[in-house]
Specification:
This protein has a single domain, classed as Rossmann fold (3-Layer(aba) Sandwich), CATH 3.40.50. The protein is 37% helix and 25% strand. The protein is built from ten helices and ten strands. It has a six-stranded mixed sheet with strand order 6-7-8-3-9-10, with helices on both faces. Strands 2-1-4-5 form a four-stranded antiparallel sheet, with helices on one face. Helix 5 crosses helix 6. The longest helix is centred in the C-terminal third of the chain and has 18 residues. The structure holds adenosine-5'-diphosphate and magnesium ion (MG). The site of adenosine-5'-diphosphate has 10 residues, from helix 1. Magnesium ion binds next to helix 1.
Length: 248
């Protein structure tokens, strides 16, 4: 279980996280919605230990990761995968070496075994045979899927998806959602997904949270969110220009 409590983070004078509280249960898929720039990516980067908060805690199975030393954090990181919003591929490495980056760093598998594993993950994200392409040869949607293959390469227990389907066509979006669901159902993966795609959100979520103004302002089952009387939730879910939610 992941417990985020009273998380605060500012950049200079700009307060981005202002007391985020959130619980993610083992095996669940939590979707986080929220307007652009409200701090969703910053929150995910804290959960995976890439950013340190100014205040607050993140407990993963009871361990406060905001206070861990590097070696222990590295061990925990092996159990987690993250698909970054920008895919964050290394431009100088081909697709296979990008996906195998963590595997090569943390295991001593043979080149052949690594190739096999990478090919299997590429197959899963619908990009078979692209092992030796360079990132510059990929479209935005392909980069995203390579980023996803890298996120799942080490078969993590926890996966953080930052806008996994932005820029993908509807067919590829469904395929990625199905992969997300099958990782959850077959392997019991716990996940947090940030998205602006309501269809995708409601397809994969067990629970949905709304992040706004530096806090989680609402969290509940899909039904609870759909029927929420909170005007912020209503405006966001219906995608209305007029309402209480101001542009940041
Ligand atoms: N490393 C950083 N340094 C300074 N400001 C940052 C950094 N990362 C994010 N921010 C700022 O934090 C705010 C939230 O960013 P982000 O989490 O990326 O938003 P989103 O909800 O769209 O994912 C933005 O104003 C962004 O400019
Ligand atoms: Mg973001």
């Amino acid at each position: 279980m992941i417990i985020v409590s009273n998380l605060h983070k500012s950049f200079g004078s700009k307060a981005v996280l202002k007391g985020v509280n959130l619980k993610i249960y083992d095996g669940e898929s939590l979707v986080i919605l929220g307007p652009s720039g409200c701090g969703k990516s910053v929150l995910l980067k804290h959960i995976i230990g890439l950013m340190k908060p100014d205040k607050g805690q993140i407990l993963i199975d009871g361990e406060d990761i905001t206070k861990l030393e590097q070696t222990r954090m590295d061990e925990l990181r092996m159990r987690m995968g993250m698909l970054f919003q920008s895919a964050a591929l290394f431009d100088s490495l081909n697709v296979e070496d990008n996906i195998a980056f963590g595997i090569n760093r943390h295991t001593s598998l043979s080149k052949r075994a690594v190739h096999h594993l990478v090919s299997e993950k590429l197959e899963m994200v619908g990009l078979p045979g692209t092992n030796y392409l360079m990132p510059s040869e990929l479209s935005g949607g392909m980069r995203k899927r390579v980023g996803l293959a890298r996120a799942i390469a080490m078969e993590p227990e926890i996966i953080l998806y930052d806008e996994p389907t932005t820029g993908l066509d509807p067919i590829m979006t469904s395929a990625i959602d199905e992969l997300h669901l099958s990782l959850k159902e077959k392997l019991g993966v716990t996940s947090i997904m940030v998205t602006h795609d309501m269809k995708s959100a409601f397809r994969v979520a067990d629970r949905v949270a709304l992040h706004y103004g530096g806090q989680i302002v609402e969290i509940g089952s899909k039904e609870e969110i759909m029927n929420s009387q909170n005007p912020l939730v209503q405006q966001f879910v219906r995608g209305e220009a007029q309402g209480p939610m101001t542009q940041l």
